[in-house]
Amino acid sequence: MELNQVTLPVKNMDDAVLFYLRLGFTQIVDTPHYARFSCPDGNATFSLSLAPDAGENHSVIYFEHEDLDTLCQRLTAQGIVFEQLPQEQRYLWKEAVLRDPSGNKIKLYWAGDKRLNPPWKVEKRLP
């Protein structure tokens, strides 16, 4: 099985689409109530669904980028505001935190091999 996509609720589609285009994603579906994007690397996609009355979304979406510091510098120069610039985390990932115009929490990160192989890795499956 492979994860296909994640859909985020947004309050204003135009503002949200512009935000994700500024982050470097390519828009592949464009309707007034739904937008889908492909990621710059790999085959992953994610989408936005118009939900003007949506409450707070507590989900966090992660986008991995090997040269995180350079990416964050470029985005800051374009006016993207970060809640947290890249910092090493205790779980061995380097993360930056920002929010899209609807308040959805986004983490840009780099984990390298530690993403799938942390020192505390387990492999549990049902028999």
Structural account:
Helix content is 17%, strand content 35%. With 127 residues, it is of the alpha/beta class. The strands form 2 sheets. It has a 4-stranded mixed β-sheet with strand order 1-4-3-2, with helices on one face. It has a 4-stranded mixed β-sheet with strand order 5-8-7-6, with helices on one face. It is globular, with a radius of gyration of 16 Å. The mean pLDDT is 94.
Average pLDDT, rounded to a whole number, is: 94
Unreliable sequence segments: none
Give, in order, the helices and strands: EHEEEEHEEE
Structural class: alpha/beta
Descriptors for this entry?
4-stranded mixed sheet, 127 residues, 17% helix, 2 helices, 8 strands, alpha/beta, globular
In short:
This protein has helices spanning 13-23, 68-77; strands at 7-10, 26-30, 34-38, 45-50, 60-64, 82-88, 94-99, 105-110. The chain is of the alpha/beta class and 127 residues long. It is globular and about 45 Å long.
